[in-house]
Design brief:
Blueprint lengths: L1 E5 L2 E3 L5 E8 L7 E7 L5 E7 L6 E3 L7 E6 L4 E6 L8 E8 L13 E2 L3 E5 L2
Parallel strand pairs: 2-11
Antiparallel strand pairs: 1-3, 3-8, 4-5, 4-9, 5-6, 7-8, 9-10, 9-11
Length: about 120
């Protein structure tokens, strides 16, 4: 079971980035997918979740209206489109998978957890 994130980088405030998370080793289309982030010196923060079929997604208040998560089950990939980025969005972004709805950010509660990709928002 493996999750590999990509697409992070340095972006100016107000800019956009799209993160990708490629999954392998499990039946991707049967799993909820999550994005979780960790800002420097802070704890893990849930960002978004999307159900197995991709019909329903949910967002933290801090990113609602600016971030969009989607998935392509044919490509075993989940995405996080981030726009109107703010310095406070600077964090390591992780994708995670679970066979059920998870309401925590405890890594061991998930079935798989990626290695993370750094997003830095700075001028």
């Amino acid at each position: 079971v493996q999750l590999v994130e990509s697409g992070g980088g340095l972006v100016q405030p107000g800019g956009s980035l799209r993160l990708s998370c490629a999954a392998s080793g499990f039946t991707f289309s049967s799993y909820w997918m999550y994005w979780v982030r960790q800002a420097p010196g802070k704890g893990l923060e849930w960002v978004s979740s999307i159900n197995p079929g991709g019909e329903s997604s949910h967002y933290a208040d801090s990113v609602k209206g600016r971030f969009t998560t989607s998935r392509d089950n044919a490509k075993n990939t989940v995405y996080l489109r981030m726009s109107s980025l703010k310095p406070e969005d600077t964090a390591v972004y992780y994708c995670a998978a679970a066979s059920r709805l998870i309401l925590t950010t405890v890594p061991t509660d998930f079935d798989s957890w990626g290695q993370g990709t750094q997003v830095t928002v700075s001028s």
